[in-house]
Amino acid sequence: MRLGLEIHVRKDPLRFLARMNIRTVIDVGANEGQFARNIRDLLPHAKIYSFEPLPVPFSKLENAFSTDLNFEAVPLALGSIPGDAEFESNAFSPSSSFLPVNDKHRKNYPHAAQTSRTKVPVSTLDLWARDHILEPNLLIKMDVQGYEDQVILGASETLSKAAVVIAETSFAPLYQGQPLYDDIYRLLRNRGFRSGGMIVNATDRETGEMLQADSVFIRDPIGR
Questions:
Q1: C-beta separation of 87 from 133 below 8 A
Q2: pTM of full prediction above 0.70
Q3: Domains of the chain and any CATH numbers
Q4: In this structure, which of 36, 78, 81, 150 has its CB flanked by the most CB atoms within 10 Å?
């Protein structure tokens, strides 16, 4: 007898990665390890490098993976120029960025309105990678709150070895001066990636406008 009840089991939208033989994951903007925990379930044997420049979330990140011998927490921010730089440390740490939040951000995320400035060490991904052996296939994830273009500009060599990039992209600015989806797509298209879809993760609380998505970019074997 049918009772008119439908049960939908939500599957992980990134489960396709399990069949791509990903051996190395570069997690840029790790915060407390939210992405790393999810990807560890999907890729139990991959080496994960998680980058987080702020001391408090970095400590939580290290503690969360203290028994994982195939994990390394890296206390750095990544960008296009190495050195030290001023960083907007947000009261809601996942919203921390090199860029100041704007009014749309404050309206949609009032708990993320308060920031303080601090100095953090910055490297480029290419410079860091020269001292590390990164086994293919390589997955690069970027969630750096509007600073994704700068990470890409400092990562041309490493991106050339990547099979997949997952980047948080915005369709309306939430930070001052941030690039939008088209800008990130163009940068990655020029480096040999095609769009592989997206996972919507934020909409405007009043208008329903799409604000952000985790966008997937896959190495294009044709290279066009």
A1: no
A2: yes
A3: 15-219 (3.40.50.150)
A4: 78
